[in-house]
Amino acid sequence: MAANGPAKIAPSILSADFANFGAECRAVEAAGADWIHVDAMDGHFVPNITFGPAMVKALRPHVTTTLDVHLMIAPVDPYVGAFAEAGADVVTVHAEAGPHLHRTLQAVRAAGAKAGVALNPATPPEAVAHVLDLVDLICVMTVNPGFGGQRFIATMLPKIRTLRAMIGERDIRLEVDGGITPETAPAAVAAGADVLVAGSSVFSGGSVERPETYAANIAALRDALSG
Ligand code: DX5
Ligand code: ZN
Q: Of 2, 60, 84, 193, which sits most exposed with the smallest number of CB within 10 A?
């Protein structure tokens, strides 16, 4: 059992209809999403470009739950304030995105957001060992960041287990991001994850006109966890 109760499902709008984000967020929340995950990419840290703070600000009124913003941006320090001001509840930065992770996490909290740190697949769990008192969330990338719809990297499971042990009694969420499906989610949760980012597996086959598919996809994730 995860330390923070039943795992939260955080659909990534990277797999939503880019012409209809407000309605997509409302639909997926009505379908049972616990959080909304937003992937900001800069075309430099990762080979894809997506959203900036203005988009997060536009989205904010359409999201009643936690707005979980994952910054795949380097350098990231100049932007954390803008994303927090735009309404992000959690601002997650990559450990690999700059030389001063400790300072970056301080800046996120000073801006009024919860601070998350994401680890690329090749980054060891020890990268966060000395910043645990500054983080509210650790995100284990279970794909190489940049795109939705990739395969879950199962060799990340021991890293999830190690981080769960490192977290101990601290109030820190352990998130997994990439390739989460009803087939892969149970192993991630068994290893200690308590927030599941899911893009393609939540949005596939659905639309704002067919939100029942979103509900069925989210239910399939939850069923896999309770089974
Ligand atoms: C990848 C992003 C993920 C992505 C997950 O760079 O950080 O949040 O949207 O998509 P799926 O669930 O399709 O792997
Ligand atoms: Zn993400």
A: 60
Crossing angle of helices 21-30/211-226, nearest 10°?
A: 50
Which sequence positions are flagged as catalytic? 39, 177
Cβ–Cβ contacts within 10 Å for residue 183, how many?
A: 11
The answer to whether 31 and 218 are in contact (CB under 8 A) is yes
Residue pointed to by tokens 């979980």:
68
| Residue 120 CB less than 6 A away from ligand 1 | no
pLDDT per position as a tens digit, 29-66: 999 999 999 999 999 999 999 999 999 999 999 999 99
Q: How far apart are the first and last CA of the chain?
A: 13
pLDDT per position as a tens digit, 97-128: 999 999 999 999 999 999 999 999 999 999 99
- Ligand 1 atom with minimal separation from the 150 CA: 14
pTM for the predicted model, two decimal places: 0.98
Stretch 181-190: mean pLDDT: 98
Percent of the chain as helix, strand, coil, to the nearest 5: 40, 20, 40
Query: Ligand 1: does its nearest atom lie under 6 Å from the Cβ of 70?
Result: yes
